[in-house]
Amino acid sequence: MKNKNYSFVIIFLLTIILNGCSAIFGNKKDAQTDQIFVQGAIDPNLIPNAVGYVPIFPFFNNFSHPVDVYVGYDEMVYVIDDNGLNILDQKGTHNAIIPILGATDVILDRRLDLYVAGRINHPTLGNRAAIYHLINTASGNYQIIDTLIHPFCDDSRASTGDRGADDLDVQFTGLATLADNTLYVSRTGPRNNLNSFIRPDNAILIFDQQGNNTGYALGLTPTTSSLKSVMGVSSIATLAGPPQRVNGISTSKDFFVTQASTDPSVEYRFLRITTKDDPDLGTLYGESSNYLNFDKTKADRFQYESFRFKKPEDCFIAPDNLQYSFVVDSGTDSLYVFTNQGFEGVNPPANSIFKKQVIVSFGGAGSDGTFSGPFSFNDPCGVCYNKKIIYVADKNNNRICRYKLSVDM
Questions:
Q1: Which CATH superfamily is domain 41-408 in?
Q2: Count of CB atoms within 10 A of residue 49's CB?
Q3: Closest to 329 (Cα-Cα) out of 236, 401, 240, 394
Q4: 26-49: per-residue pLDDT in tens?
């Protein structure tokens, strides 16, 4: 009798395994699975069955023109859209919306203090660029503890008068933090006289964690294209980022910028700016000329190819050991991925027949001609990376898209 019972159990389990897997795990041929594994408009050099990004559904929806996304040290997802600052958990559940005028960018430092770039209506000077410093955003009891307002937050403007319309045109376009909670702010504007004691509007400002302006990235070129230019700088990113950890986080002061200037002379629009501390001269900011090494035995495309981008809006550097960099370009409606040597693509998997970087950049119109498919974007403006997942703020599709590399699945 006991043997018969065992036989019945074995038969029952085999029936479940053979017939019930699709009910438990999902049918490999169902519509959603087909949608996930359709490669869409991916570079033809990519072998779809080997390496590529696949979407993680569901995408996060119910936004109004999202322009930035950031996953913080607190593991909350922060999204900037027309309504201000949206706070979500990693399942995409909306927890709160904090209205902030003209918000465009968000970052969280290691103290869990949050900064938002936006605008403020000054009682006497009118609408000005501003950076809001908030605390307790994840708890629901947020406070704005400081507001950095142009031009008062720039020490070089302490003794100058208002510039009227020119100061109204100044924008804070990007935020990034270092491991010690130093804040970098990218800024654009119309006045860029290098012979003045006043800093150019096209600049990277530096603030300590108390909000004091401690300097700016001296030596970057605000009006001419170069390997260290900031013409129409549209974003900034550092090598320090979540998750929170005591050891292993980068202490480098280097940063990356994108340039969305309409000036057609801008040759290199995604740059790495190197830093070197000199005991007499302070921090020196230099170019990454080694990215001009176009080693065709290792990659087919490169970050520093001339006129590689059209209108890059945002960048992000993976804070893990590989340090892949990600760029979204609204001019091509695409996401690009590069190695820390400036090679486009990701490392081929172990035992692969491919010896070069595998190009996994994607975007543009889908096979149906639209820009709304899972591998297409319509004016992507923000990008972030956290725990091997890429988040893209897909502005005109009103969504946050999420992707994971197939070899990481």
A1: TolB, C-terminal domain (2.120.10.30)
A2: 9
A3: 394
A4: 343 444 444 444 333 333 433 345
